[in-house]
Every structure is written in C-alpha cells, then in structure tokens.
Description:
Elements: H1 2-15, H2 22-28, H3 30-46, H4 52-64, E1 67-68, E2 73-74, E3 79-80, E4 87-88, E5 93-94, E6 99-100, E7 105-109, E8 119-120, E9 125-126, E10 131-133, E11 137-138, E12 143-144, E13 149-150, E14 158-161, E15 166-170, H5 186-216, H6 233-241, E16 258-260
Parallel strand pairs: 1-4, 2-5, 3-6, 4-7, 5-8, 6-9, 7-10, 8-11, 9-12, 10-13, 12-14
Antiparallel strand pairs: 7-16, 14-15
Amino acid sequence: MLRAIGADLRMIKERDPAARGTVEILLCYPGFHALVLHRFSHRLWRLGLPLVPRVLSQVGRSLTGVEIHPGAQIGHGVFIDHGMGVVIGETAVIGDRCLLFQGVTLGGTGKEHGKRHPTLGENVVVGAGAQVLGAIAVGSNTRIGAGSVVLRDVAPDSTVVGVPGRVVHQSGVRIDPLAHSQLPDAEARVIRNLMERIDTLEGEVGRLQNCLREVAAGRPLQDICGGKAQNLRDREILEFLGDGPGDGPGSGLLTAPTDGAD
C-alpha cells in the first residue's frame, strides 16, 4: 500500500505542473486523499470486514467529492485530477498510471451481479465528465475525450470521442496524456463530408435535369447523364454512424439503466 501511495505522489509531480512539492500534494489534492482512503478501505474489503470499508468510502466521498467503492481495484501511479464528482464502481479495475479528470464515472449498467464495471488498461486518460459504462475493456494508452459516453470495448492506443463514444484514431504511437487540445473533431469532419456529398448530389441532379430537357427537345445528348452513386467519403460517414463492418443494429446505444457505483 505504501508503494502504491508513493507511486501516486510521483505521478502527480510528473503530470501536474501546478504541483510545487510533496507537502502541497499531501495537503491540497483531494484526488490523492481519496486514493489513500480507498487503498486502506480496499485492504479491509479484501479481508472481508463488513460495513467498515463502505463507511470509510462514504467518509472519503464527503471529504473529497470522490466516490470510490472499496471493491474497486486501482493500480499504482493513478492520478485523479481535481476529483470532484468522480464515481468508481465496485467491480471497476484501473491500471497503472491512469489519469482521471473531474466528473468521470466508471459505472455499471443493469442490475446483474458479478463483473459490471469497466476495466481500464495502463496509461488510460479519461477526460472531464466522461462516462465509461458496463463491463467493457479500454485498452492501454487510450484517450477518452471530455464528455464522451463509452459503451463498447476499445482497442489499445485509441482516441474515443462523442456520444456514444466512437474510436476516431488508432495507432501504435505513444500519446501525450495531457494533450486534450489535439483530440480530433469527428462531428465537424463528418458534417463537412456530408456537405460535400450534398454538393456532389446537387450537381448530379442538375446534370440529369439538363439531360431530360435535351431528350424532351429531341436533341442528341452531348455527354453521359449520370454519376457514381457513392463517394469514398461515405465510408467515413458510415463508420461514424456505427454502420460499418461488424456493427449490428442499435450498436453503440445505451439500452440499460446505469447503476452508478454500486
């Protein structure tokens, strides 16, 4: 437990430019306080002690604004930045060196027993207000954009944005966990593609109208009246809408109520 706390301290110093020393972190970082209390309550939870671990988690929630179920498994070097409103469920698993911002929920769906909360790999970054729901796996080195809702498994080295969350970038390149300004704007790109597609279709309709006028006037056609029915950009639009290969009906939609941290 002491090794884990030491790793948490080192990670805060590494990733937070506002951290000016160990004493400041010990006194002024509620995310760190919540993790210390959780590591103690988790030890009691594993020993099978009734009620006391849950009481400690509620004390931590009252003091820090971070609610972590004592059953959650949290690795070393985890940093909960600011922390207010973070909820981590009972069967959640967080790998080493993960970074969670304020308002993040690692919650469950439905009322089933057993594993019902997410598993985060190592070096995962979850942006402010993001919701990761259900017994899904988020691969290592993945970034989840602020406000996203993730409902399906995510491969390693990915970037996820949107509601529901969609993978918009995937590569083997190591990412900067604090480079939130570099997240792609998937919605803007798809809207731009749709506008270009509409412009193409309007051009095709205009050419067909000219052809019909030529035929009605009995004049020979000067060129072929028609065009391709699809554009290569349609592939990107279909992937964004969840109709790509391997996506079934209703994929990516939330179909069960969430149960938060329980």
